[in-house]
Amino acid sequence: MLTLPPPPPPPPLTRISKQVSCDQIVLSKDSKQQPIKQHSQESNAPNYITPNSTRPPPRLRQPSFQRTNPFTWFAAVLCLIFSLVLIFFGVATLIIFLGIKPRNPTFDIPNANLNAVYFDSPRYFNGDFTLLANITNPNRRIDVRFESLDFDLFFSGRIISTQSIQPFTQRRRETRLESLHFISSLVFLPSDIGVSLEKQVQSNRVSYNIRGTFKVRVSTGVFHLSYSLHSRCQIEMTAPPTGVLVARNCITKR
């Protein structure tokens, strides 16, 4: 029998050919899957259009120059001048008053006499009362003008007589004494107040209250200032007809 020679062996495959073939296979797979992945990302991306791609940037416009009305300038200058004048006079007044140190006039009662207290009926009162008022100007550089001086006599909060003094001027550090005569004639008093007055007369101690209201004008040569003063005096007298002043307490303030 004839024997055939064996077929030649196949050529050996090298590793390089295997690697190339694997890389080609991987690249081919990636090239096939890459469009699909990119398509999925594009499908998930938000569907909007950026404003920079559609609208042009806004143009900045310079504001047009407008001239100020002359009347506005005139009003501003007037306001400035008025403010400066006001500040000047305020500072000058403060300096003058701090240098002068003005003080309020004082009121006091150095002496008083209760001449009579009697009743025509349980509710109608009659009385005779005199006092000596001492009004002093304690300032060293200021003259004081009293334009009005009114006094009211009270017992237990009820007014029983009034008196006034004519206006006068006081020089610096000057004292003036004025006599005031209070006469009460048929003054109506409630029964409880009348009983209280009778008890005080019997106990030889009668309490009166005197309230004075003054309108004062202060002159410094350049500036003039007017204001009101209020004096409150509580006095105790012995019983009439020889009623004399026992105690007093006077306060004067604005």
UniProtKB/TrEMBL annotation:
- Tell me what topology the record assigns in the membrane: Single-pass membrane protein
Q: Give the stretches traversing the membrane.
A: 73-100
Polar residues bias located where? 33-53
Q: What InterPro entries does the entry give?
A: LEA_2, NDR1-like
One GO cellular component term of this record is: membrane
Kindly report the protein's main subcellular placement as a broad class: membrane
Q: Late embryogenesis abundant protein LEA-2 subgroup domain: which residues? A: 134-225
Keyword annotations of the record: Membrane, Transmembrane, Transmembrane helix
Localization, UniProt: Membrane
Is the keyword Transmembrane helix assigned to this protein?
yes
PANTHER family from the entry? LATE EMBRYOGENESIS ABUNDANT (LEA) HYDROXYPROLINE-RICH GLYCOPROTEIN FAMILY
According to UniProt, the name of this protein is Late embryogenesis abundant protein LEA-2 subgroup domain-containing protein
Supply the source organism for this entry.
Answer: Flemingia macrophylla
